[in-house]
Design a protein that fits this description.
mainly alpha; two-stranded antiparallel ribbon; 12 helices
């Protein structure tokens, strides 16, 4: 099935809430969608491929075996790691939309190689340099936000450990203090949501959470040399502060965030 045939099929399926026609093999369909998951046409990628894959997985319209096949493919060098390290290149769409479906599958599947997936996702996250949000004519790249979404699934999984949660927080700290790019498309809120899920996992002790928050320090120096990193960190901590207050989280932790915000930033 070529690209145009797939797009035509998905446009028809969208009218029936992505019901798979009897003449179409579900495995072939999903394999073809995975091949095109990084397409630069935002309608084809977001509204058709992403929406259809997400729906079919959630409804179990594809077998658990096939869901595991999709997960393995998306974690591969052909998808999550394709072009990793490139900046302002179209390969970013393949990586970031692979991450979204990886998150859906991790949330859905219980019997997974959790350690392998965590290692792959975190390795990807540390090496992703293309931080663009919305790209004109091509739609959302949004690598930091999509990374946050898969971290939510990993942190909520029943195989999550204290060690894996600490590694996730280390990556979140790195991303939210990045001084090379200014986040303006809600990345702070998405990362705060992931952090909330990590904190609620109960595998981390209060002093470990407090130590993580205290790692946030204002970058000192000429304003233009450090304003982006300080802006990103401050927005993230603000978002986290209000999220935790809203759910009546441990007041001692909320206080630590407040003190870091007021004393550091």
């Amino acid at each position: 099935m070529n690209r145009q045939e797939l797009k035509t099929l998905l446009l028809k399926m969208k009218k029936t809430n992505f019901e798979i026609p009897k003449s179409v093999d579900a495995n072939d369909l999903t394999n073809n969608m995975v091949k095109c998951i990084g397409d630069i046409d935002p309608v084809f990628r977001d509204e058709l491929i992403l929406s259809c894959l997400w729906t079919l997985i959630e409804r179990d319209d594809v077998s658990i075996k096939q869901q595991n096949v999709i997960l393995k493919d998306l974690l591969s060098n052909e998808h999550l790691f394709l072009g990793l390290g490139e900046i302002e290149h179209d390969t970013v769409f393949n990586r970031t939309f692979s991450n979204l479906i990886i998150g859906v599958l991790v949330a859905k599947l219980e019997n997974i190689n959790y350690t392998l997936i965590v290692d792959r996702v975190l390795d990807y996250g540390h090496k992703e340099l293309d931080l663009r949000g919305y790209v004109e004519c091509k739609g959302w790249a949004h690598s930091t936000a999509h990374l946050a979404d898969v971290l939510v699934s990993l942190a909520a999984h029943n195989k999550a450990t204290a060690q894996s949660l600490k590694m996730m927080l280390e990556l979140i700290h790195k991303k939210t203090t990045d001084n090379s790019f200014t986040y303006i498309y809600g990345e702070d809120e998405r990362m705060a949501r992931a952090t909330e899920v990590i904190f609620n996992n109960k595998n981390l002790k209060e002093h470990e959470i407090a130590s993580y928050i205290k790692k946030f320090k204002k970058i000192e120096g000429e304003y233009l040399d450090c304003c982006q990193g300080n802006f990103n960190a401050k927005n993230y901590l603000r978002s986290l502060y209000f999220r935790l207050r809203k759910i009546n989280y441990d007041p001692q932790i909320v206080k630590v965030i407040y003190l870091v915000l007021t004393e550091e930033f």
